[in-house]
Amino acid sequence: MTSPTNPSEPNAAQVPMTEEFDSFKHTMPNFLPVVIAMMLVAAVLGFLAYILRSTPVVAGSIDEAFAVTIPNQNSSLAVVNLTFQNLTKKSLWLENINVAVHTKDSDFKDDFGSVADFPRFFQASPALKQHAQTGLVRDTKIAPMEKTSGSVIVSFPLTQEEFDARDSMTVKLTFADQKSVTITTGKKK
């Protein structure tokens, strides 16, 4: 037993500072295994990010947009010709096409009309027929890697001049069980 008066022998209740703050190498794990583990975790996360990345569903373009003013109204009918290709390895079903026109003052949106209404639109505005292709239909099946072209007709509360002076146009393609795809044209020249 040590005597409390002997300063050379430590008291059990008092731990010397040299033991409490021991060196770094005795309290931390080896550096190399930690670095290797971090690199393995980073490699697995990178591999998972690559495998699970979002891939494009469709690539497409707005080929033409032509509008005519509806007589005696401050609105127009527009035919928009689209081309798009299924980039997936499975079939896609077209649910909706939404066309938005962006002007300097505001934005206008409309979902595409039924192909059954095309003859009525063409009778009211024969100029539309000259710019239209085969109409796109809801629930159209697009096979893998298949390219599809067609027209949609939409209506906006704009005159033909206002439509032609638009800043840009955005077409949003919606497919069953897939993310929507947006196609945008820049400033109208």
Description of the structure:
By secondary structure, the protein is an alpha+beta fold. It has a domain of 128 residues: Immunoglobulin-like, CATH 2.60.40. The strands form two sheets. Strands 3, 4, 5, 7 and 8 form a five-stranded antiparallel β-sheet that branches. Strands 1-2-6 form a three-stranded antiparallel β-sheet. It is elongated, with a radius of gyration of 34 Å.
Put the structure in a nutshell.
About 25% of the residues lie in helices and about 35% in strands.
Q: How would you summarize the topology of this molecule?
A:
Blueprint: H1 17-20, H2 24-27, H3 31-51, E1 58-69, E2 76-86, E3 92-102, E4 107-111, H4 118-124, H5 126-131, E5 141-142, E6 147-156, H6 160-164, E7 168-175, E8 181-185
Structural class comes to alpha+beta
CATH topology of the domain at 58-185: Immunoglobulin-like
Helix content: 10-25%
What spatial form do the alpha-carbon principal axes imply?
Answer: elongated
Rounded mean pLDDT score:
85
Using brief descriptors, characterize the structure shown.
6 helices; Immunoglobulin-like; about 35% strand; alpha+beta; about 190 residues; three-stranded antiparallel sheet; five-stranded antiparallel sheet
